[in-house]
Predict the structure.
Amino acid sequence: RRGKPTCHKQFSEASAILAGDGLLTKAFYTASLSKVDPSIQVELIQALSQYAGCDGMIYGQCLDIQEESDPDPTLEKLIEVDLYKTGKLIALPLAAAALIAHHPEDRKIMNELGEAIGIQFQIQDDILDATSNEESMGKSLSDAENEKATVVSLLTLEKAKELEAAYTKSIHELLSKLHGDFGALKKLIAALETRTH
């Protein structure tokens, strides 16, 4: 949605909540239609529930809301928000891919990889928010104005870049442990690492 108003701004808060409810419910229906062995189908639906629900993205959203009014933000709390809010979002399709491809031995690594990519993505966003402009980013750079805690505000720009580099190293180490040809995934990760918005 970069460069476009969010759903609740363009329509209404109630419409945005209902759209979220509808899409989440539709996801379970879509997973039930997947043309895989029924046992894998069950695992996919379980993963969807785990990663998207109260143990995953929804939990991350709750943490994010709490974090906004936290008088004592810490890096650990911020990373936890990033892990559940964005990490689980990216880990879900990667873990599902391991199941569908009949490589359950890769599921743990795919999960760790998705979580690391999600955290790195959010650190990158914080760095870009501090070094870019609204036109380049395609969204409002309001974190500083709203005094919202970011990796940059908690560490400094230089330390934030060092933390991002550490996650990049971890991501490449995880990639090297996977079984099979992951050229397309590696290209996608490389594009994320060099993004400017």
Notes: The longest helix spans residues 75-100.
